[in-house]
Amino acid sequence: MFNKTKRKIVFTVVLSLLALMAVTLTTIYLSNRIALRKKNEEMLQTYAERYTLEEKEFYPDGQIRPDGLPDIKPDGQDAPWNRRDDRRGKNEPAFRLSTFYSVTFSENGDVLAVDSGNKELMDEQTLIQTASDILGKRRKSGKTGSITYLVDKRDTYTLVAMIDGTIDDSNQALLIKQMLIIGSIAMAALFALSVFLANRIVEPLEENDRRQKRFVSDAGHELKTPIAVISANSELLRRETGDSEWLDNIDYENERMSDLVGQLLVLSKAQNGDLPKETVDFSKLTDGEVLPFESLAFEKGKRINSDIMPEIYIDGNQNQLRQLVSILLDNALSHGTGEQIDVSLGRERHNAVLTVSNQAEEIKAEQLSHLFERFYRADEARNESGSHYGLGLSIAKAVTEAHGGDIRADYKDGRAIFTVSLPAKKTDKN
Description:
Layout: H1 2-50, H2 53-58, H3 80-88, H4 93-97, E1 100-106, E2 111-115, H5 124-137, E3 141-144, E4 147-153, E5 157-164, H6 166-241, H7 245-272, E6 278-281, H8 282-299, E7 303-308, E8 313-316, H9 318-335, E9 340-348, E10 351-359, H10 365-368, H11 392-402, E11 406-412, E12 415-423
Helix pairs in contact: 1-6, 6-7, 7-11, 8-9, 9-11
């Protein structure tokens, strides 16, 4: 039980951290990508504003800058765009270090000019094909592969300006890779920390549970002696004084106490899980426990309808498994309101599934979660019901968990349904 609690704590912590890490990485990646795209679009806009096809044609000496403008005017003075861009803050190193491409098309679709950035990273034919594909998208701006583009339609021609983002994409990929590596190391460290914290959190609960189990076991053994003494003294008094109402009451309550102590000791043994286990034919065992209850059911005007699949084997303790089946049958027989009790045993995947159901008074959802607690009874009227002390289902749960299984209670269509799932042993036939 506590191991399951530890796993839940660790799972919750790790899942929360993974979700936080995923959100953080996604936010960083998207914000960085948006910032890079915005920067590239601004530089493309500046490039397009500077681009003048007439100036390219006017200077035949070929001294064309990568951004599409000549370095020096014929009169030897600084180009006016340099002075303008300095005032606008656009003449920055990032702009000068970036690789720009451009292809200019006429209104008829003919190529008027191609600028490969003077770096020979892309040949003219590839640039023309890329620009044609961009025009085919009929979008003013966007991104294709590592290329961010801008389409500027002018009076007599159309400019397709492009900027190469290969380095930016590589830097982004490197950033994500490094964050994943660092995040993985951090997750491993936090996983170890969460395991440590889970152990520290659950440790007091485990100690408290151990003390409770020890108390139940010790109290059970200590009570056996006074119960035996009371029984012996009652018998001696009966011999000397004869039968009396008072002695009958003493014997009755003493027997009830003896039964209660016996159940407490059984619960203690089941919770400790210290009984030997062997391969048990659970099908035969269940069938064998159903038989004596059929006669008891007949006496109460009820019947048991059983559907038991043969040759289902379990590694377990026969006595405890018999008690498990017996408790569920006795519970259905004692507290059921209908005439029919249904018992089924089958295989689901790798588990043996035992189901006992019967008609019953309504059990509320909040009561279902408490049915397996010690001394709990959903119906307070059961307080006077013979030897039922509210320990039976607690013992059933302890036996089930000691065998690595799970037990649950449901209420549906007026029927109380108890389902036990135990790990089944593989055989040649299954």
